[in-house]
Design goal:
two-stranded antiparallel ribbon, multifunctional enzyme, 6 helices, binds cytidine-5'-triphosphate, Rossmann fold, globular, binds calcium ion
Length: 226
């Protein structure tokens, strides 16, 4: 496709991307987090921008920076509650949601006001966790939202687990990622994924730079909605 066409692929389209991992506070200086560099989400946001989209990027804590000239609206969040609040607003006029963030399944039941002191616990500390809402499954989808993409990082039974999540979360697409493979770890600039959609054959995207994988995913989405 000529460059000019590619740059207009998502003209007039608002794409919301979530990226990175969430942090659930234990006390003012500690948190429970999960592995996620944010690189896949940032790549999706930047390629979507290059393809002409209006992009909102909701990001967990990460070292990644966008170029100064970027038109991407970046919203930084920490907890799942932050993510939910930011997303509820951002999706209001969104056409596409790509949920690449690693969302903490549990949060700390009672966050300590003060730094916890180790001597207050006799060599053993239990922290009670409460399940977080499933943001994708429970999101109130505005009429404008035409396409919803989830991610699934799995160490085993990749396809079965991802397939189940498509149904459970009512997704148009899930990007399934075998995180048991040490060659394409979280911090890697490369990824290899399987794309699942309801009622369509799965597509394997071979190991490649995350920006190339992002472009392949976005072009598939474009084919689906146009
Ligand atoms: N997700 C979400 N809200 C949550 C948990 C996950 O929106 N509370 C989203 C993720 O951003 C991802 C998709 O759901 O796009 C799948 O996340 P995953 O952790 O693989 O699925 P879970 O339903 O949490 O199942 P499990 O962790 O038990 O495998
Ligand atoms: Ca989870």
């Amino acid at each position: 496709t000529p460059l000019e066409k590619r740059e207009n692929l998502f003209k007039g389209t608002h794409i919301v991307v979530t990226a990175g991992g969430t942090r659930e506070a234990i006390d003012p200086v500690r948190y429970i987090g999960n592995e996620s560099s944010g690189k896949m989400g940032f790549a999706l946001a930047q390629v979507a921008e290059r393809l002409g989209a209006q992009v909102t990027l909701i990001s967990g804590p990460t070292n990644l920076v966008l170029p100064a000239k970027s038109s991407i609206q970046r919203i930084n969040i920490k907890s799942v509650a932050d993510l939910q609040a930011a997303l509820d607003t951002a999706v209001q006029d969104a056409d596409i949601l790509i949920m690449a963030a690693a969302v903490s399944d549990y949060r700390v039941a009672k966050i300590a006001d003060h730094k916890m002191k180790k001597d207050d616990f006799n060599g053993e500390l239990e922290i009670k966790l409460i399940e977080n809402p499933d943001i994708l499954a429970t999101l109130k989808r505005p009429d404008s939202l035409r396409y919803v993409v989830g991610f699934a990082a799995e160490t085993n039974d990749l396809i079965e687990n991802a397939q189940r999540k498509i149904l459970k979360k009512n997704l148009n697409m899930i990007v399934a990622n075998d995180v048991g493979n040490p060659q394409i770890g979280f911090e890697s600039n490369q990824n290899a994924v399987t794309i699942l959609r309801p009622h369509q054959a799965n597509i394997e995207l071979k190991k490649n730079d995350k920006s190339i994988i992002a472009e392949q995913i976005l072009k598939l989405i474009d084919q689906e909605i146009n």
